[in-house]
Structure formats: structure tokens, C-alpha cells
Write a structure and sequence with these properties.
Blueprint: E1 9-12, H1 21-30, E2 35-39, H2 40-46, H3 48-58, E3 61-69, H4 83-95, E4 100-104, H5 114-134, E5 138-141, H6 158-165, E6 173-178, H7 179-182, H8 188-195, E7 199-204, E8 206-207, E9 218-219, H9 228-237, E10 244-246, H10 251-254, H11 258-274
Parallel strand pairs: 1-2, 1-10, 2-3, 3-4, 4-5, 5-6, 6-7, 7-10
Antiparallel strand pairs: 8-9
Helix pairs in contact: 1-3, 2-3, 4-5, 9-11
């Protein structure tokens, strides 16, 4: 049975990395969680049609799909990058019955020209929007933490993300907020307000102190220093009332039994995130 606070809780697949897509869906259903954040590689492993069937069989919906983008061509793993891969990501998102596809915009290209890299992101997004809109998929621009500017995204603030999205309709391009990436921003409150009804994705985790790793330093809500309740209140004040994904990259979490990880997340979510 779904508990009162879990109607908004979503478990991103990466949080329970040792599980397959099917195991993640089954696990969420078993714990009364109705949403899952999907990763394309994991979906591709079992096939998108089978993945959609598993979701339907267990009454679980996809809160977001990760990921497309890398418009600068700079991807640390060189996967899901390029026009053909981005279009395939959109097709898979639509076939899963989802409508939010996260974009990781891409890092600084080999020429080290940061302004040119940001221009490439603008151009790449403009080229992709019509294809996504025809298939009912909204593209979610996700600003990443500045320490990821070199490899993963030259878009590092909410203001930059909103500026990218503004030339398009809110039903075409929206904003994805991840607390790990934006909590530090001195203009966070203004950025959230400016994003407004463009916010179509919201992910939470905590910032551990000390940071064990520049990518794998995410903690379970309540383990770190981020004011998750305050950020959630600000996001909700814009009118966003959709799923809240818990997305954690952390070797210790990954080595723990996934059912135990979900149990702890559920225990801390109501007070630590919703407040």
C-alpha cells in the first residue's frame, strides 16, 4: 500500500545501481513507490517494449529518463551523444510512456573555447526540439555543478539553463533541478522563481562533508549539508507538484542491499525533504 508521503517519491535507477530495470520497478512497487527515474542503457538491456510492459504490470510510471544531450561532443563515456543517439533517446522516452528527457549539455570541447561550447549547446538544442515536440517529449535542461564544466556540462547555473529554455515553449523545453548541482548558487532562490512553470524535473540528494569523490559524493537525504526542505519549498512554490527523484551516486550506497537503501530513503524522505 502506498504511504501518504510516497505519492511524490521516485527512485532513480542509479541509486539502486545493482538492480536491473525490471528489478528496480519490482522493488519500487514492493515498497509502495509509484515512480522510477529510468536510465536509457538499462532500458536498452531488456528492450524498451519489455520495459514498458514491466512498468504497466506493476503500476509504476517513469518520472524522467536520463539522458540525452552532449551537444559539444564531449562525453566522458562517449555514449548517448550525437544527433542519432539523441533522437533514439527521444523515441525510447516516448515508448516508455514518459515525457521528460534530461539533457546533459556537454563539456568544453578539445579547442577549450568555452563560449563556443555554450553556443554549440544552444544550436544543438534548437535542432532537437522539433523532433522531441512531435513525439510529445519535453526536454529538460539540467545545470550541473561547476566542477563538471570540463567533461559534462558547460551549463552550470539555473540562470544559464533558463536562458537556454526561454526561446521555446514550456511544453517543449523545461528545467531539471538537482539539489546536488545547484544548492551552492547564491542566486538559487531567484533562479528557481525565474524557472517557474518550466520546472519539469526535480532530483534530490545530499552533499557529503568531506566530499569522498567529485562525482560519487552524493548522500542519502539527511546525511549532508543541503537545505533540502528549503529548496523543496521553493520548487513547490512555483507550482511544481510532480515526482521528487532521489538520485545518488555513491559507492557505499551501491554496495548496500537495495531494499535497505530504499527503506532508509523512505524513512528520511517525509521529514528530510518534504519537511
Amino acid at each position: 500500500m502506498t504511504e501518504p508521503f510516497t505519492d511524490r517519491l521516485s527512485i532513480n535507477q542509479i541509486t539502486v545501481k545493482s538492480w536491473t530495470f525490471e528489478e528496480t520497478v519490482r522493488g519500487c512497487a514492493r515498497h509502495g513507490i509509484g515512480h522510477v527515474g529510468a536510465w536509457l542503457d538499462s532500458v536498452a538491456e531488456i528492450g524498451v517494449d519489455k520495459a514498458a510492459g514491466v512498468l504497466a504490470d506493476h503500476g509504476v510510471s517513469v518520472s524522467s529518463v536520463c539522458r540525452a544531450g552532449f551537444f559539444t561532443g564531449n562525453s566522458p563515456d562517449r555514449s548517448w551523444a550525437g544527433r542519432a543517439d539523441n533522437e533514439r533517446a527521444i523515441d525510447m522516452t516516448a515508448r516508455l510512456g514518459a515525457d521528460v528527457l534530461y539533457l546533459v549539455c556537454g563539456g568544453v570541447a578539445d579547442d577549450r573555447d568555452l563560449p563556443a561550447a555554450r553556443a554549440a549547446v544552444r544550436d544543438g538544442l534548437a535542432e532537437l526540439v522539433p523532433y522531441a515536440a512531435e513525439r510529445g517529449v519535453r526536454l529538460a535542461v539540467e545545470p550541473l555543478h561547476p566542477m563538471m564544466c570540463a567533461e559534462r556540462s558547460v551549463i552550470v547555473t539555473l540562470d544559464q539553463a533558463v536562458e537556454l529554455a526561454e526561446p521555446f515553449g514550456p511544453d517543449e523545453v523545461g528545467i531539471a533541478i538537482d539539489t546536488y548541482n545547484v544548492w551552492w548558487d547564491p542566486r538559487l532562490a531567484e533562479g528557481i522563481e525565474r524557472a517557474g512553470d518550466r520546472i519539469i524535473g526535480y532530483q534530490v540528494c545530499d552533499w557529503l562533508v568531506p566530499q569522498p569523490h567529485p562525482v560519487f559524493g552524493r548522500g542519502v537525504p539527511g546525511e549532508g549539508v543541503i537545505d533540502l526542505r528549503g529548496i523543496t519549498r521553493a520548487v513547490d512554490a512555483t507550482g511544481y507538484d510532480g515526482p521528487i527523484e532521489v538520485e545518488i551516486f555513491n559507492e557505499k550506497v551501491w554496495s548496500s542491499p537495495p531494499d535497505e537503501v530504499i527503506r532508509v530513503i523512505k524513512e528520511r524522505f517525509a521529514a528530510g525533504v518534504l519537511g
